[in-house]
Write a structure and sequence with these properties.
The structure holds two protein chains of two kinds. By secondary structure, chain A is mainly alpha-helical. Chain A has helices at 25-28, 30-38, 51-61, 72-81, 86-105, 108-137, 142-164, 171-180, and strands spanning 3-4, 22-23, 65-68, 185-189, 192-195. Helix content of chain A is 60%, strand content 9%. In chain A, the strands form two sheets. In chain A, strands 3-5-4 form a three-stranded mixed beta sheet, sandwiched between helices. Chain A has a two-stranded antiparallel sheet with strand order 1-2. In chain A, a hairpin with a 2-residue loop joins β4 and β5. The radius of gyration of chain A is 18 Å and the shape is globular. The relative contact order of chain A is 0.21. Chain B is mainly α. Chain B has one domain (12-222): Ferritin. Chain B has helices at residues 9-12, 17-48, 52-78, 105-124, 132-159, 163-176, 190-197, 205-222. The two termini of chain B are 25 Å apart. Classes of the chains: A mainly alpha, B mainly alpha. The A-B interface holds A 76, 79-83, 85, 88, 92, 116-117, 119-120, 123-124, 127, 143, 146-151, 153-154, 186-187 and B 47, 50-53, 55-61, 63-64, 66-67, 69-71, 147, 154.
Chain lengths: 196, 234
Amino acid sequence: MYWERTTPVARSPDMSPAMTVVVLPSVLLKALRTEVGAASWFAALGEPLTDGDRTDAATYADVLDVVPIDSWPEAEAFLKSSLSLSWWEREEEVRRALLARAQDRYPERALWTSLTELTTETGDLVHGKAATSAARAGNAAAASIHVAAGAAAQAVYQLAVARLAGETASLFESKFRLFAAGRWPLGVVDSKLILF
Amino acid sequence: MTDIVIKTVEELKDAPEEYREAVSKLVISHAINELYGAQVFDEPAIAYAPTPYAKWLTCRVAMEEYGHHVRFKQLGVQMGLPEERMIPGAGKKPLSIFEFPLKNWEEFVAIKLLADLAEILQVEDLLHCTFHPLRNLARATMPEERFHAQFGEDFSAELVKTPDGKARLQAAVNEYWPYLPKFFGGSKSKNNEIFRKWKIKQRTNDEMREDFVKRATEVSAKYGLTLPELREAA
């Protein structure tokens, strides 16, 4: 059962209020699931940056420059030492606002269940992809694979929340594109995006 | 003891009613407690984590805990249990530890160090379960539970490097430790008797609690931490 009659939200113009239907979140997230499955998770870590990477980086983080990171140990050292978390707080602020909008559009249980199932499914996929990338590099700490999987799954969750809120131009779209292109954005320091 | 092995969810339909009820209770309990843990501790901890590394690691832990809930719930649904019985607020009272909202990073590290050890013991006891779908789920869950406990150890090792960090971690241990042995249920639990009768679980609640206290004492000592004396066993 993919449709249910409930609070009027996604209504076509020729429908009367009594005939209003709501598309359940799981249906709307189907396209995202396909994108997640097709993404090149962690496949380009340490590779030279492309113009596309730089464009997505600038759109995502509104930064003037991109600093490439070349190896897993370098990425781990940066993530452990960076106390600059204003970019994280900014994303959290955007996410909370989008989540509030999504909560207005969908029944709580359906929304929550869809997001939980999506992140569970994504978590398993990206964990495997991160492990493959780390094995190829040969110098990654085991815990860093979990960190990478957490970052990637969070990016998918953020994008899912944005799309469920009806937002199609959020910073989470360009963040996801970086991951989909095999990159891992590690954080922002002094108007520079640190990109693995 | 009663010898019975149920290899599939389909076979469960022909199992004795007492067996089916016992398995259902366990699946419901795990589904609810995994969800409570993720909601009350793991997800809020992301905000307290001090670096991007710790934040994303905590994200992964939270997602895995939610994932455990999803997997136990899926098994319950396959068994014919209504989803409503496997989410909080459906009548089953949560463990008392879930009534205390997380206040800081050190509390989360203490919970991973000790509460996830309790979780490991619970899952270990299902590794030889006669209901194989539950046994297999326990086997799939175990590596992730071990990683969560290791997370607790790794960040404990970080915190105890400074006197202030160690004092804050010890304070968190002191606060949460008294609630943890209650995870294992009452000494004269009728449920546990039935679980063991059908070899769904292997050990008494008291045996598990005793093992937990021993292992928790050992792991705490590794980081120079002490456990406050317990006033009551269960």
